[in-house]
């Protein structure tokens, strides 16, 4: 469920909500992969002394825990660099020309050439 924007806050998901969404997606992927690899392992080598269901569930839960852990961390890391729009605009204004887009770099370079040409012609 998306977050309802409060007064003065940007719309979107919070870090906690993105972490939870990453964990849920990882759990789904992990359960599926655990089912596939666990089934293959059981068919290939047998279920072992515990039986089919406990062995398959161990594969599935272990895989789900691993995938959900790493996808949750990845979601938080990916969310870490996002800024609200007004702060992103301020960051772009204060950033060096190297940090900006190619079009900004070209226009800045042409402006510097024009200033240098004007300075040489006035000497």
From TrEMBL:
Chief location bin: membrane
Transmembrane segments: 20-43, 55-77
Location(s), subcellular: Membrane
Alphabetized UniProt keyword annotations: Membrane, Transmembrane, Transmembrane helix
An example Gene Ontology CC term for this record: TIM23 mitochondrial import inner membrane translocase complex
One Pfam family per UniProt: Romo1
BP GO terms, sorted: protein import into mitochondrial matrix; protein insertion into mitochondrial inner membrane
The family this protein is said to belong to: Belongs to the MGR2 family.
Protein name: Reactive mitochondrial oxygen species modulator 1-domain-containing protein
Species of the source: Trametes coccinea (strain BRFM310)
